[in-house]
């Protein structure tokens, strides 16, 4: 006689369900590990190929900046190829003329850099003496019985010699960036059409078309408008420094305009450099504080009034993501690649918002802003569910009481 007793539900989990849970957990761990390995391998490959990828990224950024100018020339019945050549040729001519005009002033400033460094060292000598005394005491404690170390003095090259050594590489990279920018501007419509036709399904092509449209509006529009803002900022800074009788006004203005392409880090670097140089060269406190205060006031007006008015909400990237991206690019490719950080982040954020698998990453990269109606609805739903769970918590288990 065989008796069959039914299993009570909830007494013990079935082996098939437990095995499925373990398999799913293992797959998640494997997927996360593979993702980390792919990210590390990509960073290593980008660092190894920095000599090619850095100028390529700069050329893509320049092409995005100059795309509105090329579109304007096309609207006045100039063909795409000549319009791209004219745009790049005029830009290179303006940059070359500005560089040639600033070379004497920059050379004079660099020739006075050792004297400025000596002045700063002399003014900071009381503090450095105390630090040196503490350092000598710590070295004596840690190096008891050790043989005396032999100091090696390395002769550093001068500014002109260093510039002469790096000139051929700079010229090669400039030619590569110029030619690649012309090709990107001339063939941008063909590449856009090929990207749209790349997916096989109609929804995929529609999504790709929306991505190309948003990248064109957000990245290219942002860079072109920011370029105009920085040109105006350089002119205004130069005029303010001339009015305040601060030496090297044009050099400071152009440096402040160029460094403003790198958010947060660029303006802060120029302001600190102006404070340091003013502290070293000025005789009175008012003269020392004038350059950094002027730059700080202009940066506050530009960042809080001009950019929100002209750029609207094109840039909604978190400052933390911008800072980490700038640091990573400078570490991999050098300081010149820092200008590609914000365009690259805006491009990736735009693509991530259209791809369902990358949408959580895009939401994570976004800064705090005015949420959409769906976002507000989701936030209200999550908040109500959280309050409901708090009201259902047992009060005698040591958990805090639920708040109304």
Topology overview:
Elements: H1 15-48, H2 50-75, H3 80-111, H4 113-123, H5 125-142, H6 159-186, H7 188-196, H8 202-243, H9 249-259, H10 265-281, H11 285-311, H12 319-333, H13 341-354, H14 359-365, H15 373-391
Helix pairs in contact: 2-3, 2-6, 2-8, 3-6, 4-10, 8-9, 8-11, 8-13, 9-10, 10-11, 13-14
The ordered H/E elements are HHHHHHHHHHHHHHH
Contiguous runs where pLDDT drops below 50 for at least 5 residues: 149-156, 369-382, 392-404
- Tell me the number of strands: 0
> Number of DSSP helices?
15
How would you sum up the major sheet?
none
Describe the structure.
- With 404 residues, the protein is an all-alpha fold.
- Among the domains are: 47-125 and 168-186, no CATH class; 216-315, no CATH class; 317-392, no CATH class.
- The protein is 77% helix and 0% strand.
- Residues 149-156, 369-382 and 392-404 have low confidence and may be disordered.
Compact overview of the structure:
77% of the residues lie in helices and 0% in strands. The protein is mostly helical and 404 residues long.
Task: Please tag this protein with its features.
15 helices, mainly alpha, 404 residues, globular
């Amino acid at each position: 006689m065989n008796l069959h007793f039914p299993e009570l539900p909830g007494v013990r989990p079935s082996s098939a369900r437990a095995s499925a849970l373990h398999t799913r957990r293992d797959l998640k761990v494997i997927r996360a590990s593979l993702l980390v390995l792919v990210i590390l391998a990509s960073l290593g490959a980008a660092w190894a190929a920095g000599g090619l990828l850095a100028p390529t990224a700069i050329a893509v950024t320049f092409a995005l900046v100059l795309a509105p100018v090329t579109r304007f020339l096309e609207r006045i019945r100039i063909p795409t190829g000549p319009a791209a050549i004219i745009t790049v040729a005029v830009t290179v001519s303006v940059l070359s003329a500005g560089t040639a005009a600033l070379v004497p002033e920059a050379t004079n400033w660099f020739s006075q850099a050792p004297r400025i460094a000596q002045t700063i060292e002399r003014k900071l000598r009381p503090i450095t003496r105390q630090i040196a005394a503490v350092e000598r005491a710590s070295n004596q404690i840690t190096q008891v019985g050790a043989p005396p170390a032999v100091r090696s003095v390395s002769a550093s090259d001068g500014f002109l010699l260093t510039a002469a050594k790096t000139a051929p590489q700079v010229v090669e990279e400039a030619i590569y960036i110029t030619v690649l920018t012309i090709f990107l501007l001339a063939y941008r419509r063909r590449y856009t059409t090929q990207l749209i036709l790349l997916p096989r399904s109609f929804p995929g092509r529609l999504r790709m078309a929306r991505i190309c449209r948003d990248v064109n509006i957000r990245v290219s529009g942002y860079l072109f408008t920011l370029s105009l803002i920085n040109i105006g900022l350089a002119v205004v800074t130069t005029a303010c420094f001339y009015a305040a009788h601060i030496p090297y006004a044009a050099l400071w203005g152009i440096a402040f305009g160029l460094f403003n392409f790198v958010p947060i880090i660029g303006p802060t670097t120029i302001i600190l450099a102006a404070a340091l140089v003013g502290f070293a060269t000025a005789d009175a406190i008012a003269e020392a504080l004038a350059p950094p205060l002027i730059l700080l006031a202009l940066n506050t007006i530009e960042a809080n009034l001009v950019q929100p008015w002209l750029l609207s909400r094109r840039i909604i990237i978190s400052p933390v993501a911008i800072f980490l991206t700038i640091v990573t690019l400078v570490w991999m490719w050098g300081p010149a690649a820092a200008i590609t950080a914000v365009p690259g982040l805006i491009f990736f954020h735009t693509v991530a918002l259209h791809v369902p698998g990358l949408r959580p990453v895009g939401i994570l990269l976004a800064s705090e802003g005015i949420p959409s109606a769906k976002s507000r609805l989701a936030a209200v739903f999550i908040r109500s569910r959280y309050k409901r769970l708090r009201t259902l918590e047992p009060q005698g288990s040591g958990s805090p009481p639920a708040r109304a």
